[in-house]
Design brief:
α1 crosses α10 and α7 runs parallel beside α8. The chain has a single domain, classed as Alpha-Beta Barrel (TIM Barrel). The two termini are about 30 Å apart. The longest helix is centred in the N-terminal third of the chain and has 17 residues. It has about 325 residues and is of the alpha/beta class.
Length: about 325
């Protein structure tokens, strides 16, 4: 307990420094972190990710450690996003989440065109903590090409029928265009686009115009949500901690999708490559200080319920 208290206190002091640039008062509101990764590098057989050569995050990332690093900032719940293409790791992640009430759910990894997709989906969907699947620019996959695979759209249709989420991974213009096609072909499917602030915007005029046009098309759907996650950047090796540095790029996304369709995600512990949890949250808090109290509540917890349909597991977790 003493270690936890010291860690929380140090984190709170770090947050105070990281968020000082905003110069705004901040009310305490509950926060749901809609994007963290869990893995255990010490388990037999190891993990597909991160690699052993990753000296920053190659160590166990489990709920106990997450709580230690995040609780000082009002975090009362989190959603675990898959970090493995191994079919068996869906159950591993589900078991970890089930044993820790701070976790309000998990997003797994299934291939919609797989012969076992429907069976796996039905089994996992039997647990209310299973919220959906992620598919995109990871594990050597290409959503744009895979949409044409036999059974892929049928799988997404089954996902929508089950009331589950389809989450993208690591967006770029090609992936955004593919998500537009998904939204058009499976209109009942809820879609979450992760890390959109980190997506590369084309420099060529026509490609850039098409990119923004595709985002506006997606924003026209009431079932599409975006995470303002993977926000912190470094310039010349220095972390940019002033929230005003990020205002133009974040405002562009906020103005397109509106306050009802954006959510918070830290990307912990992958975010440690760029910034500490306190620094990440300080930047986000500083940016959100310029929004209304209602918009802050939507971003930090209400919209995550609309997107994922998670159900509270602890008394301090909010509900609509």
């Amino acid at each position: 307990m003493k270690l936890a208290a010291l860690s929380a206190g140090a984190a709170a002091l770090e947050l105070a420094g990281a968020g000082a640039a905003s110069g705004a008062a901040w009310e305490q509101i509950p926060v749901i972190d809609a994007h963290i990764h869990l893995f255990d590098t010490l388990r037999p057989g190891g993990v597909p990710w991160p690699e052993k050569s990753d000296t920053v995050i190659y160590k166990p990332a489990l709920p106990e450690r997450y709580v230690l690093e995040s609780a000082a900032f009002g975090i009362v719940g989190a959603i675990a996003i898959e970090a493995s293409p191994l079919a068996s790791d869906n159950q591993w992640l589900l078991n970890v989440v089930r044993n820790h009430p701070v976790m309000v759910g998990m997003v797994g990894d299934l291939v919609p065109s797989s012969p076992t997709f429907l069976t796996d989906l039905e089994r996992l969907h039997g647990d209310a903590l299973f919220l959906g699947i992620r598919y995109g620019n990871l594990w050597n996959r290409d959503l744009a090409a895979d949409l044409e695979n036999a059974g892929f759209i049928d799988g997404l249709t089954a996902l929508a029928r089950a009331g589950l989420v389809f989450e993208s991974a690591n967006p770029d213009p090609r992936l955004i265009a593919a998500i537009v096609e998904v939204a058009e072909r499976v209109p009942d499917l809820r879609i979450v686009i992760d890390h959109l602030p980190h997506a590369p915007v084309p420099t060529e005029v026509d490609a850039r115009d098409q990119y923004w046009a595709n985002l506006r098309l997606l924003a026209g759907s009431p079932r599409v949500f975006v995470k303002l996650s993977e926000i912190p950047v470094r310039e010349n090796g220095k972390l940019m901690t002033d929230p005003h540095f990020y205002k133009v790029s974040l405002d562009a996304l906020w103005d397109i999708f509106g306050e009802d369709h954006v959510l918070f995600g830290s990307d912990w512990p992958n975010s440690d490559h760029v910034a500490t949890y306190a620094q990440t949250f300080g930047i986000v808090r500083g940016y959100m200080a310029g929004k209304s109290a209602e918009a802050r509540e939507k971003y930090f917890w209400k919209n995550s319920i609309a997107a994922y349909k998670w159900v509270r597991r602890r008394a301090d977790q909010p509900s609509l």
